[in-house]
Structure formats: C-alpha cells, structure tokens
Design brief:
Helix 2 runs parallel beside helix 11, helix 3 crosses helix 11 and helix 7 crosses helix 10. The longest helix has 25 residues. This protein has one domain: P-loop containing nucleotide triphosphate hydrolases (Rossmann fold), CATH 3.40.50. The protein is globular, with a radius of gyration of 23 Å. The chain is built from eleven helices and five strands. The chain is 44% helix and 11% strand. A five-stranded parallel sheet has the order 2-3-1-4-5, sandwiched between helices. It is of the alpha/beta class.
Length: 284
C-alpha cells in the first residue's frame, strides 16, 4: 500500500465504533473543576435563553436521538438543572397504546410540540420509527420507507411555522456502549436503565447502524439538519452540545431589573401553636 493510500485510509472515518474522526480519543479528559466551571457558564446562558424565549414567545424543539447508553439522559439533565420546567419541558413518551398505534405516526408527538414561550426537549422522538421500531420489527418496511420519505416534509412544515428545530445524534462507540452496559448491570442505582430492548440493541449493533445510516441519508436536510455529537467522553459531549444549542438560537439577553424585597408584615398577635407534629428523623 502506498503512503498516499495509507494516509487516505487514516483520514477516512466511519460513525461505527470509531470516534477518532471527530478528534475525541486524541483529546485529554477534562478535569472535574474545569468541567464544572464551564458547565455553569453554559447553564447561566441557558437561563438567558429561557428569558428570551419567554419574552419573544419563541418556540423551540430539540430532538435527542442515539443508541442506548449514548448519553442522552446526561445531556438533558445538565440542560434542565438550572432552568424552569415551565419553560423547558422534557418529553420521553412510553411505548404507544393500542389506540395510539392506529393514529398517524407523528400524531402523539405533535400534541407535545411547544406553544409560545416554550422549549420542548424530545428524549427520543418521531425518529423511533427510523430506528427501534424498524430494527425490532414494530413497523413494516413500507411504513419505514414512508416515514423516511415524509419526515423531511413534516419537519419542513414545523420550521415554516416558525419553530426552531435542532436535531442531535449522539454517537457512542461499540467499546464504550459495552462498558456502560456492564456498569449498569453492576450498579444498583443504574439497573433500571437496562431494559430487554437495551440488551437486544447491544446484540443488533449493525442492524442499528444500517437503520441510522438510512435515517441520516434521508432526513439530514438543509432545512432540518442533523448534528452528530461524539459521546464517548460524556463531559465533552455535554459541553459541546449545550454550546451548540446556544450558538444556534439567535437569543438576546433580556435586561434584568432586580426586584426590591418588601418588608415583613408585623406579627399582629400571632403565636406559634403548641402542637406536636411528626418530624422527619434527623439522621444527619
């Protein structure tokens, strides 16, 4: 093999099991103090974004997709830590009911779309049809084909109505996903995260790869593009994702006028009643 061919081979990267093409593995891990300082700065900006969304009646949809154990929950948790759940709303729908199975596929997701002044985060979305439903046989090949054909039209309509739509695919390597699954088995606090569907997704790695490839090819459009987040390094994934969200929405800082706390009212004869109540045991 020539030097030129070797160089070209090194430069060629695939999504499957190799995040080196995104420059992740070559980077040193971020220290805890540095990470906490940076995530706090980003969370302050999320609060500013929240104020702008409320003031302008903007509507924002953020879609998170990816393999099981890719880190969607961790990113969403960091986004939600310091914002209001009345503005930022997380949607993680369960399996459809028998009635919902007879509806239009997007129908139950449309019900969750934001009103003015709201940001809706989908922890998995209508793209279930492109991945888990298709791989696990919960939809037909024809239904899958129709979804890939119609999805760009649906998303184009959302954008045309003024909704800001951001779509993120978290890409985790085979090695890292395997490691995280083992950690879930060993950790009592994480066992609930490992479902039979997760185990099956571990087995069907390449079925999911093919489904992902078809999804990205059909639905990565100029109107509603996909953004890939390498997620083997959780800290970097969280920082990079939140920074990208903030850079993708043209928000302005709303001037803040600090309120003046009113004085306490007078006691006016109030006396604490001498009643015994059940107290929480003070173990610490």
């Amino acid at each position: 093999m020539s030097k030129k061919s070797k160089k070209k081979k090194r430069q060629t990267s695939e999504l499957d099991g190799n995040t080196q093409g995104f420059g992740v593995n070559a980077q040193p891990k971020i220290g805890k103090k540095e990470y906490e300082a940076e995530i706090f700065k980003l969370q302050v900006e999320l609060v500013k974004l929240q104020d702008w969304v409320k003031a302008t009646n903007a509507r924002v949809v953020i879609v998170f997709e990816g393999r099981d154990a890719a880190g969607k929950g961790g990113i969403i948790k960091r986004i939600m830590e310091r914002v209001s759940p009345r503005v930022f709303r997380v949607v993680a729908l369960p399996a459809p009911t028998e009635r919902e199975k007879t509806q239009l596929h997007a129908q139950r997701y449309v019900e969750q779309l934001p009103a003015g002044g709201e940001i809706v985060i989908f922890d998995r979305s209508w793209y279930n049809r492109a991945a888990v439903e298709y791989v696990m046989g919960f939809c037909t090949k024809e239904e899958h084909r129709h979804f890939l054909r119609d999805c760009p039209i649906f998303e184009g309509f959302l954008v045309s109505q003024g909704i800001i739509l951001l779509k993120y695919w978290l890409e985790v390597s085979k090695k890292e996903q395997h490691k995280r699954f083992l950690a879930r088995i060993k950790d009592h606090s994480k066992r609930w995260k490992l479902s039979p569907m997760d185990l099956e997704s571990h087995r069907r790695w390449y079925d999911y790869s093919r489904a992902r490839d078809a999804m990205l090819a059909a639905t990565d459009t100029p109107t509603s593009p996909w953004f890939i987040i390498p997620s083997d390094d959780k800290k970097r994934a969280r920082l990079n994702c939140i920074a990208h969200i903030l850079s993708s929405i043209p928000y302005d800082e709303i001037p803040y006028k600090p309120p003046k706390l009113p004085p306490r009212q007078k006691r006016n004869g109030y006396v604490e009643p001498k009643q015994k109540h059940r107290m929480v045991p003070q173990l610490w």
